[in-house]
Write a structure and sequence with these properties.
The structure is a single chain. By secondary structure, the protein is an alpha+beta fold. Helix content is 41%, strand content 26%. The strands form 2 sheets. It has a 4-stranded antiparallel β-sheet with strand order 2-3-5-6. The longest helix has 35 residues. The radius of gyration is 40 Å and the shape is globular.
Amino acid sequence: MTTHTHMRRVRSGTAPHRGRALALLLAGLASVSGCTSGEPASPKPTTPTSPSSSAPASASPSPESPEETAKKEAVAAYQAYWTELPKAYAVPSLEGTELKRYTAAEALAKATAGVANLKTLGQIMTGAPVLTNPTVTAAEIDKKTPHVTISACLDVLPWKVIKKSTGKPAPLPSTRVTKYVVTALVERWPDGWKVLKSTPHGDQPC
C-alpha cells in the first residue's frame, strides 16, 4: 500500500515538469514555423531574377574633351586672378602674392600701376570683390596659343578703399556702379593659363 502510494506521488510530481517541457518544445516549433510561414524554404535561385539585378550596368561617363578641360582651367585661372589681386591691393605690393603666376601683358601692367597708385595716395583696399558665374563665351583651343574669352559678374561693394592715415574709408562717388559685367582674355602659356586683359563694363549692371 505504501509502495503504490509512493509511485503515484512520483508520477503526479513529474507530470507538471513534463508538461512544461512539452509546452516549451511546442513554443519553439511555433516560432520557427512563424518565420517560414509554415512552408518549406524554397531553394535560392542561381541566376538573378529581380529587375535591379538583371538590368545592365550603367554606362560610365564619357571622358571630358580636351576643349572642356581647357575651358575649366582658364576659368580657374581667372578666379585665381580675382583672389590674388585683392591681396596685392591690401598691402599694397605684388610681393607675397601669386599675381604674376596668373597675369601677363595688360592685366599685369594694370595691377602694377594700381599698386603704385595706392602707395602714392597712401591708401589700401580691404575686403575682396565677389566674382560670380564666370562663363566662357568664346574659345580657340586649337590655336598655337590657345585662348578663351570669359564673361562674369563682379560685385565690388565689399572691396573698400581705406586711407592709411585715418583707417577710414575714402570718399567715393555715390553714383558709382558696384556690380557690373567684366570680361577677360585668358591665354595658355607654357607655365599655365594667364589673364592678359580684364575689362570692367560699368554700363552693364548684373
